[in-house]
């Protein structure tokens, strides 16, 4: 008798796991059969400019909020002060490095001083190679003709990261030492990290208006969870034996935290800083939709006018900034770990004399950039951005002329083979039929609690008046997830079975995961134009790295004895993969599907900028058209509801698959 067939406590025999796929197939078959007879009924179609009574009510409530902004005490003595503080914080950093200020035609620190400071930080906290990368990376912002925009992005990122760390690290320490608070905050962090970045923007503009304040708050909300979670993990990872020794020597709880836990968790906390910075940069670029300054605004304007060259140029600057910030903070983490292992607690420099020399040279360059125009304003004759734009535009035209047959064939294959059938089934089915199918899926894949969550989510989607758009978004999300899993399984199995392939591909995947979502839209837009397929392909490229890595790790986690036994029994490579490795990596595959689906949803709604339509377009239209604000806010809530429903079903299914896999062993 196998573990999955053994009777659990209480004498009730648990049904085996294998019929689940047949149950799912039966539900789909019944769905299609019923759809044939009832298609087009109760689908709640809504035109692009049409509003439901709920949307009108939200518009009216928004107007009330706008009109009471300077009268209501909540705004006068709380929200307005926060908005003013955040605006002034960002403006102050901009005055230092990007915008004319204090009666000067140029910022306080010019381009040469900023490059010098960034290089010095990289050298003191990293190494010479990272310092050279930083100097070249920062200089490239000016060479691309985007120095001011890059510094605006850096200013907003810096302000948001400082606030995120001031909030996140203390809360992370609290979660690390207090089990009750950790249990309380974990579901909230899960929710904040699961939701697409889009959904933070719309409601914040109601309170903080469009501009840097809303962008900063949205960025902090998105960037603070990694700081809390990773700091708490570092505090909890300190070995109990060390804490017991500290206590036995008479240390108080505060002394133990300050002198033992925090120093030992320093390396992990630096990793949290790295993740916070990357999350902040990602959000800052997307916050251009609510008029946040910087490179994101350049990308948005270029995407709206289908100017691929300008979008690529700005996207390249975002990529460079992401790489530089990631490498500097990663190198800082390695240095902290090396110092800890060597038993040293000295400053970040290798030698104090070298650190002093670096700081002295940096000070001189900062002074020159403050005093002299040549060191303050990046030379316009060194602007190579126009050549980049011209080259990309030429490459785009060439690709569209010479690759149209291939891109068109792929677009038609995805449209007619996957997207159109999915979309017709979802949008043509009555809402109650789709709801019943989703509840059935939750019952088969998850548990009773998730069934209730799914039923509530379906009811909310109906109540929000955006059922059709939600189904279109869901269809695109499911199609993109199918493509992600195909790519994830193929590349993941290849990586899991070959060390050489893993060493070559994994760094590319790691780099891909550091890129903000906007960046993925640009090259795909050049190949496929502004269509819904563009958003789907960009979503596949964005979500594939996490699915590939999880699949590869699952394949590598298969017991070598099982592989050896199958090989000894005469299994071919194909049989070994399909009959042994993939079935035994089922939990990893389910987790890959779960994470891939959430990444896909985040990217699909961003695709509303390039023709994806549906909920993403509703949110964007709500920013730009006042009469559609209520619909945009409702669309943001609908995205949240979809995300919660999909995340709960897939995550519970992943946990269930993991439990069954371990039980089978």
TrEMBL record:
Family: Belongs to the binding-protein-dependent transport system permease family.
Residues that span the membrane, as ranges: 22-38, 74-96, 108-125, 131-147, 154-177, 197-224, 268-290, 310-332, 353-375, 431-464, 471-497, 517-544, 596-616, 628-646
Record-annotated ABC transmembrane type-1 domain positions: 150-329, 470-650
Keywords linked to the UniProt accession: Cell membrane, Membrane, Transmembrane, Transmembrane helix, Transport
Pfam families assigned: BPD_transp_1 (PF00528)
Superkingdom per UniProt: Bacteria
Organism encoding this protein: Streptosporangium vulgare
Bilayer topology annotation: Multi-pass membrane protein
InterPro entries: MetI-like, MetI-like_sf
PANTHER family given in the database record: GLYCINE BETAINE/PROLINE BETAINE TRANSPORT SYSTEM PERMEASE PROTEIN PROW (PTHR47737), GLYCINE BETAINE_PROLINE BETAINE TRANSPORT SYSTEM PERMEASE PROTEIN PROW (PTHR47737:SF1)
Coiled coil ranges: none
Protein known as: ABC transporter permease
Location in the cell: Cell membrane; Membrane
């Amino acid at each position: 008798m196998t573990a999955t067939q053994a009777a659990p406590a209480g004498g009730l025999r648990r049904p085996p796991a294998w019929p689940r796929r047949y149950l799912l197939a039966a539900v789909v078959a019944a769905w299609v059969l019923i759809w044939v007879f009832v298609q087009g009924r109760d689908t709640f179609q809504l035109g692009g400019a049409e509003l439901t009574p709920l949307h009108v009510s939200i518009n009216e409530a928004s107007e009330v909020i706008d009109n009471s902004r300077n009268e209501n005490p909540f705004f006068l003595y709380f929200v307005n002060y926060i908005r003013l503080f955040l605006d002034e914080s960002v403006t102050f950093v901009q005055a230092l490095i990007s915008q004319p200020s204090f009666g000067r035609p140029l910022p306080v620190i010019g381009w040469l001083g900023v490059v010098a400071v960034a290089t010095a930080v990289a050298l003191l906290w990293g190494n010479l190679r990272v310092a050279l990368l930083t100097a070249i990376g920062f200089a490239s912002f000016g060479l691309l003709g985007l120095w001011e925009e890059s510094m605006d992005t850096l200013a907003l990122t810096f302000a948001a990261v400082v606030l995120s760390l001031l909030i996140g690290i203390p809360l992370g320490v609290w979660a690390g030492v207090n089990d009750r608070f950790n249990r309380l905050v974990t579901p909230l962090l899960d929710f904040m990290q699961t939701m697409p970045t889009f959904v933070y923007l719309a409601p914040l503009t109601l309170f903080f208006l469009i501009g840097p304040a809303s962008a900063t708050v949205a960025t902090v909300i998105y960037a603070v969870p990694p700081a809390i979670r990773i700091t708490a993990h570092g505090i909890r990872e300190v070995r109990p034996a060390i804490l017991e020794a500290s206590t036995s020597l008479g240390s108080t709880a505060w002394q133990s935290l300050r002198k033992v836990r925090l120093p030992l968790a320093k390396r992990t906390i630096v990793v949290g800083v790295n993740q916070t910075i990357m999350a902040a940069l990602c959000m800052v670029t997307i916050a251009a939709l609510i008029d946040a300054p910087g490179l994101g605004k350049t990308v948005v304007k270029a995407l709206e006018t289908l100017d691929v060259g300008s979008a690529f140029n700005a996207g390249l600057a975002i990529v460079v900034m992401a790489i530089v910030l990631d490498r500097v903070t990663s190198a800082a983490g390695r240095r902290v770990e090396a110092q800890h292992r060597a038993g040293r607690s000295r400053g970040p420099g290798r030698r104090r004399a070298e650190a002093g020399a670096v700081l002295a040279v940096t000070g001189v360059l900062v002074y020159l950039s403050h005093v002299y125009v040549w060191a303050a304003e990046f030379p316009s004759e060194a602007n190579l951005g126009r050549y980049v734009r011209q080259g990309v535009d030429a490459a785009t035209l060439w690709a569209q002329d010479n690759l149209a047959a291939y891109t068109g064939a792929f677009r038609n294959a995805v449209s007619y083979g996957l997207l159109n059938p999915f979309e017709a089934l979802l949008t043509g089915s009555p809402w109650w039929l789709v709801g019943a199918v989703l509840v059935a899926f939750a019952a088969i894949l998850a548990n009773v609690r998730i069934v209730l969550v799914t039923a509530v989510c379906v009811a909310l989607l109906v109540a929000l008046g955006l059922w059709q758009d939600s189904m279109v978004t869901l269809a695109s999300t499911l199609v993109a997830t199918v493509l992600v899993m195909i790519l994830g399984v193929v590349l993941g199995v290849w990586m899991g079975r070959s060390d050489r392939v893993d060493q070559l591909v994994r760094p590319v995947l790691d780099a891909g995961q550091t890129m903000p979502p906007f960046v993925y839209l640009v090259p795909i837009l050049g190949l496929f134009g502004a269509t819904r397929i563009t958003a789907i392909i960009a979503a596949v490229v964005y979500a594939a790295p996490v699915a590939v890595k999880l699949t590869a790790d699952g394949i590598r986690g298969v017991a070598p004895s099982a592989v050896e036994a199958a090989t000894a029994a005469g299994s071919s490579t194909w049989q070994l993969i399909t009959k042994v490795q993939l079935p035994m990596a089922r939990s990893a595959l389910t987790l890959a599907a779960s994470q891939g689906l959430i990444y896909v949803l985040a990217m699909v709604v961003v695709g509303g900028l390039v023709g994806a339509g549906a909920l993403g377009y509703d949110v964007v239209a709500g920013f730009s058209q006042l009469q559609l604000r209520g619909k945009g806010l409702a669309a943001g809530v609908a995205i949240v509801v979809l995300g919660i429903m999909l995340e709960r079903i897939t995550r519970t299914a992943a946990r269930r698959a993991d439990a069954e896999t371990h039980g089978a062993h």
